[in-house]
Specification:
Elements lengths: L8 E6 L10 H17 L2 E5 L9 H11 L2 E5 L5 H12 L4 E6 L13 E4 L5 H24 L25 H20 L7 H6 L5 H15 L9 H12 L2 H4 L5 H20 L1
Parallel strand pairs: 1-2, 1-3, 3-4, 4-5
């Protein structure tokens, strides 16, 4: 089989990646290397379900990979909450799933009926060699059964008749796909640039954020709120000082071509704030 990923099935990987249950990040990197070797030995290529070649919202990426990957290996060692949640989603899709855990982690009640392959937490060489061989065989056997047995079920149908969860999909043009991805990026950038201070609901109710002008006004209002101004007592010198400081703020200044445009909106915001203070 070619080493090219295009010629191989992707095996999704769900596992801890940060310090957990007394094990540091390096421990999990070692475990990832072990699982990857076993997966590659089965003729697949390993990919963390949170990974993707494109830029996008990570939760969307995880769910798509959990649904689309032909097979998933899930390491529940330490019972990481994110891992357990992602395992639950994969089982809800009732698609080929292999669960592994270290010998220090107890079985979870809900998933205990599913076979777990076990490896030593101390990663003893001889035991790890044995574990990798078992995992490789399990991946191959599971894939074969899922592809040849029309009644194959990973979990759900052992307990009754259920409607398996599905993700809606549709074909789109390349142009539509690019537009959707750009919208995702725009949402992420908006959340990063959004001011931390909550904008006054009174102002926001009167001026919905439908236009660029409204957005800039709200940014300015948030800056004013953040310094704790009492608009009924504010002086002209304080307004002038704030105006100068805001105009030098990069997240506000880049919206304007010149100072006059900024001053116009700034004065509108101040006047509206003063009116609100008088109500």
């Amino acid at each position: 089989m070619s080493d090219n990923k295009v010629d191989k099935l992707c095996c999704g990987l769900v596992m801890p990646i940060s310090a957990l249950d007394g094990c540091n990040e390096q421990h999990w990197l070692d475990v990832k290397s072990i699982l990857t070797e076993a997966i590659e030995g089965a003729g697949c290529w390993a990919n963390l379900v949170s990974n993707a070649d494109d830029v996008g919202i990570i939760q969307k990426r995880i769910i798509q990979n959990l649904y689309c990957n032909p097979i998933v290996v899930c390491d529940v060692s330490g019972k990481n909450p994110n891992v357990m949640f992602e395992l639950g989603m994969r089982l809800a899709f009732d698609k080929p799933t292999i669960i592994v855990k270290d010998d220090k982690t107890s079985y979870s009640f809900d998933t205990s009926p599913i076979e777990h392959l076990e490896y030593p937490r101390d990663l003893r060489f001889s035991k790890i060699v044995e574990f990798k061989g078992e995992l490789t065989k399990k991946i191959q056997a599971t894939l074969h059964k899922s592809q040849t047995d029309l009644n194959y079920t990973a979990f759900l149908k052992h307990f009754g008749t259920f409607t398996v969860a599905k993700l809606d999909s549709k074909e789109v043009t390349k142009e539509d796909y690019i537009i959707e991805e750009l919208k995702d990026v725009k949402k992420q950038l908006s959340s990063i640039n959004q001011p931390k201070v909550k904008i006054s609901e009174h102002w926001q109710g009167r001026h919905p954020q439908h236009t660029l002008k409204d957005i800039v006004q709200n940014l300015i209002e948030a800056e004013l709120i953040s310094v704790g101004l009492n608009f009924s007592e504010i002086t002209e010198s304080e307004i002038s000082s704030i105006k100068t400081r805001l105009m030098s703020s990069e997240k506000i200044a880049h919206f304007f071509n010149n100072e006059e445009e900024f001053y116009e909106i700034f004065n509108q915001v101040i006047n509206r704030a003063a009116m609100s203070a008088d109500i």
